[in-house]
Specification:
The protein is mainly α. It is built from nine helices and no strands.
């Protein structure tokens, strides 16, 4: 941000309180005279970091758990199914609220908490795909040959499951950004002086009747990013399906 927009997101200006968007302040200013565009750029970094890292961790955990269930089957699979069902019993957002209420929120804490509540969908998809891969003749031959299980998983399972991983990851980033924004909007996520898109919306809700831009622009950025990521996910999924049809 400093390379193309050098306005500080923390600079107070009592002479520029709640100014509408203009050439001087592209997205207007907030109740303390701070430039909204600068704050959106700074807050976007925090929101995207939380979204990307938490989605990656959740997808990676789901990948390991899902492959383990599909490959080892039996007791391992049954135990994993019980664990997944146990987590899915609680609505994700309420589980987030319950976990975050016991710790002081920070970027690291939110990444961990969102990751803990976001791996189940990935694990179920990977488990289903792993069962299908396990039925392939060459996998059965490798198992009969007593090849190291982890070597089979890393060399043969992972490349076949990679498209699903990336689809889940892109979808997970948008979900994580929405989760962080929701928590910050409720006042239990990112707290000042840190900035995120959720905190900016929360700050603008009290003056929305006279300063619409404070809530509109961060909301629009959240919509734009999540809409783009969902479309990327759909594109990857369609490409994966096309390859599967060609293979058939």
């Amino acid at each position: 941000m400093p390379y193309f927009y050098r306005v500080s997101p923390y600079e107070l200006d009592p002479n520029s309180i709640l100014l509408e968007p203009s050439f001087k302040h592209l997205f207007g200013t907030d109740r303390l005279g701070r430039d909204l565009f600068a704050r959106l750029m700074q807050g976007g970094q925090v929101s995207l970091i939380i979204g990307v890292l938490s989605a990656f961790i959740a997808s990676f955990v789901g990948l390991i758990i899902g492959i383990s269930a599909g490959f080892f089957k039996g007791v391992v699979d049954k135990s994993i199914v019980v664990l997944i069902d146990l987590f899915l019993t609680f609505p994700t957002f309420f589980l987030l609220l319950a976990l975050i209420s016991y710790v002081n929120a920070s970027v690291l804490v939110l990444i961990i908490v969102i990751s803990v509540t976001g791996w189940m969908g990935m694990a179920r998809m990977i488990r289903s795909e792993s069962f299908a891969i396990s039925q392939m003749p060459f996998i059965k031959i490798l198992k009969i040959a007593n090849l190291n299980p982890w070597k089979i998983i890393l060399k043969y399972y992972t490349p076949l499951i990679a498209p699903i991983f990336f689809i889940s990851f892109t979808f997970g980033v948008s979900g994580a950004i929405l989760a962080e924004s929701g928590l910050s909007f409720l006042g239990i996520g990112i707290t000042p002086p840190q900035i995120s898109w959720g905190t900016i919306i929360s700050e603008g809700k009290e003056v929305i009747s006279i300063a619409w831009w404070l809530s509109f622009f961060p909301g629009f950025f959240i919509f734009l990013v999540t809409f783009s990521l969902i479309n990327i996910s759909d594109y990857l999924q369609s490409k994966t399906n096309d390859k599967e049809l060609i293979g058939v």
